[in-house]
Amino acid sequence: MTKILIAEDERDIRDLIIFTLRYHGYEVSAATNGEEALELALSEHPDLIILDVRMPRMTGYDVCREIKANKATDHIPVAFLSAKGQEAEVQAGMDAGAIAYILKPFAPDDLVARVKEFLSAGAQPEA
Mean pLDDT per 10-residue run, the chain (127 residues)? Predict the structure, then answer.
């Protein structure tokens, strides 16, 4: 089963993402802060990681950089899911190593479509 790690500090959004992805057959683990997300990424080696940008203890950018700097996890695609949609924020996410930057609010069906896209062979960063 495909495993996805979600890092989101807002409970309602986290629960919606977990429910949506599990409903579509994905195994989901969740973190509530950046440190926990990094620990889970290193221990579970998920197939995809979706990070919020602004989280307690470590930002999503920092988590992404750590994941991409580690040989054991550098191959895992990382996408950001954030309400911060300014060009500089999006660029910072892509510079950290993300393959995509999804803006909140999002439609659950759109999120599932994007996840399928990210998990397809050869997922590449979006320009």
Answer: 96 96 97 97 97 94 97 96 88 94 93 93 49
User: Model pTM?
Assistant: 0.92
How many whole angstroms separate alpha carbon 35 and alpha carbon 58?
6
In the block, which residue shows the tokens 């290193």? 42
How many CB atoms lie under 10 A from the CB of residue 54? 14
Give helix 60-69 / helix 34-44 axis angle, nearest 10°: 30
Is 22 in a helix, a strand, or coil? Answer: helix
Sort 26 into a burial class: Cβ within 10 Å, 0-12 / 13-18 / 19+: buried
Report the alpha-carbon distance of residue 94 to residue 79 in Å, rounded. Answer: 9
Domains of the chain: 3-119 (3.40.50.2300)
